[in-house]
Amino acid sequence: MKLEDVKIREALAKGDYVSEENLNAAEVFAKEHSASIVEYLFFKGFLTRDLLGQAIAEMYGVTYADLNSKPIVREAVLRIPEEISKKYEVVLIGENETEVTIATTDPSNAELPQVLSAIFPNKKIAFAYAMQEDFESVFIYYRKPLNTRFVDILKTEKHIAPEIIEEIFRDAFLYRASDIHFEPQENEVVIRFRIDGVLHEAGRIQKEFYENILNRIKVQAHLRIDEHFAVQDGSIRYERKAAVPVDMRISIAPTINGEKIVIRLLAEYVQSLSLYDLGLSYKNQKVLTETAQKPFGMILVTGATGSGKTTTLYALLKSLNTPEVNITTIEDPVEYKVVGINQIQVNPQTDITFAAGLRSIARQDPNIILVGEIRDRETAEIAVNAALTGHLLLSTFHSNDAATSIPRLLNMGVEPFLMASTLELVIAQRLVRTVCKNCRYGMNIKRDEIAGSIPNAGKYFPEDVVTLYKGKGCESCAGTGYKGRTAVFEFMKITPDMRDLILKNPSTKQIWELARKEGAVTLFEDGIDKVKSGITTLEDLLRITTPPTD
């Protein structure tokens, strides 16, 4: 059960966790930005996750159970049947000879005592409050191995393709996969899930069953089933029982062993995503929100494919999405559907390109424009002119870091004086995996041991002994030690001195030297702060970026 803001406000005020003044400010923010009061309180640093959990628990008159910090063993989870655990969101967290302690999202549910007494007869039932999002790590214990599911389905010899597809989708959601790969080999098809940016084999199926699976997915995605030698792209709106639908982007490409399918799961979580959830420091959140309040100008987010650029921009759009503002986007494809925002899909067959769509949007009286990606000179020039003529323009761009994006745009043919007049902020980002909270542990390591991986390690770790964090690997994180991802950022504000430099058609080195003097930090340095906080590991940070040489 998700608590409403009214209940949360009541809980925070009752326990004096947040001042009345800050609660009132949070209500105003929530109303103006279609957000929750919690987002504002987290953003401002007035509230932490643990304090929120404690406040709600006190409102219910029970203790607070942090399911992430207190590991839950499989045997305890399975004491309660899956259908009951998921229906009432309950898990066993303690037991003695006379009493069991049950964590739940709703200790006030009048049905619970009777339901649980049937499972634990002759024992007193005590309740604790747990956050709803923590139950994801509980429910994974009910999961059966994927191969076992395939074997069971194949034995029935009935409705094979639909059942296999359904089970694969369910497992992908359970593992929080972003992509599903169907990879034909000579005699079988390997199925892999991309989880937290890394591919994991999920199972294998015999090739004789693959054609039916392939054709069914093609039909659902409105693709040609008689085409086997061309690339095809489509989409599926997947309806889930008792859950929000999920949009899937389908890509099919011919290989020497057959047609490969890649399915991108476009998660609905972005609907509730806030800037706080992105991994932005308070300083960077402040810079981004202040820049986005300007009536015109351009904000660019750069990075490689799959680095979370679109997610960052949508989190920003969500905070700007009010009834007084007209927001229009042009994207290829539209990945996240958001109520209150006008979204246009690029379609070359009907002459809707980024450039043509952007020209049309400029005549639609927008306040804010999002261009999915600046790919060519024409789009870049129109975007810059839109930002110059009274619109706030947001877009993504491919470059390795923030400083490189400016010379690349200038090389595309954008006039330096137009660039200097419109660009307000450049953000580079990449994604790192977060350490699983369920099995995280700290290690004391001598700084000299780190020096082999990081030149000048003393710059980042002044102490002789450093505490670093890892995940042992548990069922909650599928044995990886990681669960979820966050971003590391590089912010480059366009100051008056930077505008003067842009007019001189500068090199990447010149731009970064000035940005450094003005306080910019690299992706690696932002990541080091997350390593020290136990959010990610040094190994994963080094996987996606390198220490600066300056």
Describe this structure in words.
With 550 residues, the chain is α/β, with parallel strands linked by helices. It contains 22 helices and 19 strands. The strands form four sheets. The protein has a seven-stranded mixed sheet with strand order 13-12-14-15-11-16-19, with helices on both faces. β3 (99-104), α7 (112-119) and β4 form a beta-alpha-beta unit. α10 (160-174) crosses α11 (210-220) and α14 (354-362) packs parallel to α15 (377-388). The radius of gyration is 26 Å and the shape is globular. The mean pLDDT is 87.
What topology emerges from the helices and strands here?
Blueprint: H1 5-14, H2 20-33, H3 37-44, H4 49-60, E1 63-64, H5 74-78, H6 82-88, E2 90-95, E3 99-104, H7 112-119, E4 124-129, H8 136-139, H9 146-156, H10 160-174, E5 179-184, E6 188-195, E7 198-206, H11 210-220, E8 232-238, E9 246-255, E10 258-266, H12 282-292, E11 297-302, H13 309-320, E12 327-331, E13 342-345, H14 354-362, E14 368-371, H15 377-388, E15 392-397, H16 402-412, H17 416-422, E16 423-435, E17 440-446, H18 447-451, E18 465-471, E19 482-493, H19 496-502, H20 508-517, H21 523-532, H22 538-544
Parallel strand pairs: 1-4, 3-4, 11-15, 11-16, 12-13, 12-14, 14-15
Antiparallel strand pairs: 2-3, 5-6, 5-10, 6-7, 8-9, 9-10, 16-19, 17-18
Helix pairs in contact: 1-4, 2-3, 9-10, 10-11, 14-15, 15-17, 16-20, 17-19, 19-20
Estimate the strand proportion: 15-25%
Rg over CA atoms, rounded to whole Å, is: 26 Å
Q: What structural class do you assign from the helix and strand content?
A: alpha/beta
The shape, in one word, is globular
Could you name the CATH class of the largest domain?
Answer: Alpha Beta
Span between termini: 51 Å
CATH topology-level fold name of the largest domain: Rossmann fold
Count of beta strands = 19
Kindly report the average pLDDT value.
87
How does the major sheet shape up? 7 strands, mixed
Low-confidence region ranges:
none
- How many structural domains in the coordinates? 3
Strand order of the largest sheet: 13-12-14-15-11-16-19
Count of helical stretches: 22
Superfamily at the CATH H level of the largest domain? Answer: P-loop containing nucleotide triphosphate hydrolases
Q: What is the helix content? A: 25-40%
In the CATH classification, which architecture of the largest domain applies?
A: 3-Layer(aba) Sandwich
